[in-house]
């Protein structure tokens, strides 16, 4: 009994609801369940997940309408009042999901016999539908589905240079998925080897033939190892009088995620893309093959990104991705 008292739609709503119909033109006759009514008219209908089927007749014009059922405000929003009682949050929704009282068809609906629209949605579901329908609609005929892209700036990365190729696949009209693979090069750091992999899902804001802006979310992983020359001294050598150099093997793994904003420009089948973002990465850096593992590495006097990147340990750091790509779509 207590569970029922937490469910707004079940408590507040009746099994039926009133729907006011107005029509264009005004003198239209409405047929609902074999009964004929003169518009405007208020009909009492039973709540259900099934759509209403209404027919409008004016002179020689006859048009069939489908009124989609929608979850009502009591179900969607009123149940949120239990948000403070975290345990009860899902309970009213679970109870209401078993009851057709959670549906409604709208309060005031217009049936236009001169319009091409035959499917009518209540105000609440219409808002959600208009927001998400374009993004999740099927791909238009003639829309390019595949794009191969190359990242030239990654070749010049003094930190972890790599040859990176990405493949983007358009899944829906404004939704795409992308996977990117990178082979780490050694010309910036001798004997460096490894790979990068990224996966991304993105939504284009307003997809056009000549490009669009987008929001994306990506996860990534980098695995590399290389030799690094460092300078060390004994713990008892306080002033590093007898400092020496040693080649140390570094094993580095990076895991992370980024939220990205970018824009893709299209020139026929060629594309140019830029993006920037904000994220976080977890760095796991380990060293081995040191001559004296207990000795202390000497810190550079000036800011040194390479030194900071080679410090052994595990930690989360902020990530600021920025890049450009060129590609070809087909």
If you consult CATH, what is the topology of the largest domain?
A: Porin
Number of strands: 20
- Measure the end-to-end span: 60 Å
What summary fits the major beta sheet?
8 strands, antiparallel, barrel
Low-confidence segments: 1-5, 82-88
Helix residue percentage? 10-25%
Supply the helix-strand structural class: mainly beta
Strands of the biggest beta sheet: in what spatial order?
Answer: 11-12-13-14-15-16-17-20
The CATH architecture of the largest domain can be named as: Beta Barrel
Number of domains: 2
Q: Treating each run of at least 4 consecutive H or I residues as one helix, how many helices?
A: 6
Question: How would you describe this structure to a colleague?
Answer:
By secondary structure, the chain is mainly β. It has 2 domains: 2-136, no CATH class; 146-329, Porin (Beta Barrel). Helix content is 12%, strand content 51%. The protein has helices at residues 2-5, 8-12, 73-76, 90-96, 123-136, 305-309; strands spanning 16-24, 29-32, 35-38, 41-46, 52-58, 61-67, 70-71, 103-104, 108-112, 119-120, 146-150, 162-170, 175-184, 193-204, 211-233, 244-267, 270-288, 296-297, 313-319, 322-329. The strands form 4 sheets. Strands 11-12-13-14-15-16-17-20 form an 8-stranded antiparallel beta barrel. A hairpin with a 4-residue loop joins strand 12 and strand 13 (175-184). It is elongated and about 100 Å long. The model is unreliable at 1-5 and 82-88 (pLDDT under 50).
């Amino acid at each position: 009994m207590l569970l029922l008292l937490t469910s707004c739609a079940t408590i507040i709503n009746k099994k039926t609801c009133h729907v006011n119909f107005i029509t264009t033109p005004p003198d239209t006759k409405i047929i609902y369940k074999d009964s004929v009514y003169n518009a405007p008219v208020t009909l009492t209908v039973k709540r259900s997940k099934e759509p209403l089927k209404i027919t409008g007749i004016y002179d020689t014009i006859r048009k069939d309408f489908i009124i989609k059922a929608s979850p009502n405000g009591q179900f969607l929003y009123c149940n949120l009042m239990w948000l403070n009682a975290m345990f009860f949050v899902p309970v009213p929704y679970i109870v209401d999901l078993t009851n057709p009282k959670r549906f409604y068809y709208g309060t005031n609906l217009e049936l236009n016999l001169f319009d091409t629209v035959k499917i009518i949605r209540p105000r609440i579901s219409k808002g959600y539908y208009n927001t998400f329908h374009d993004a999740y609609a099927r791909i238009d005929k003639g829309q390019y589905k595949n794009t191969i892209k190359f990242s030239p700036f990654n070749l010049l990365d003094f930190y972890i240079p790599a040859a990176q190729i990405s493949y983007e696949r358009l899944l829906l009209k404004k939704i795409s998925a992308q996977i990117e693979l990178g082979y780490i090069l050694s010309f910036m750091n001798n004997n460096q080897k490894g790979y990068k992999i990224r996966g991304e899902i993105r939504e284009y804001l307003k997809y056009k033939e000549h490009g669009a802006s987008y929001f994306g979310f990506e996860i990534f992983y980098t695995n590399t190892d290389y030799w690094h020359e460092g300078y060390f001294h004994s713990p008892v050598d306080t002033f590093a009088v007898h400092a020496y150099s040693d080649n140390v093997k570094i094993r580095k793994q990076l895991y992370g995620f980024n939220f990205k904003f970018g824009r893709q420009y299209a020139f026929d089948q060629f594309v140019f893309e830029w993006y920037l973002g904000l994220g976080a990465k977890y760095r796991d850096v380990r060293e081995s093959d040191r001559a004296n593992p207990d000795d202390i590495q000497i810190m550079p006097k000036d800011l040194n990104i390479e030194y900071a990147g080679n410090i052994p340990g595990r930690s989360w750091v902020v990530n600021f991705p920025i890049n450009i790509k060129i590609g070809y779509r087909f």
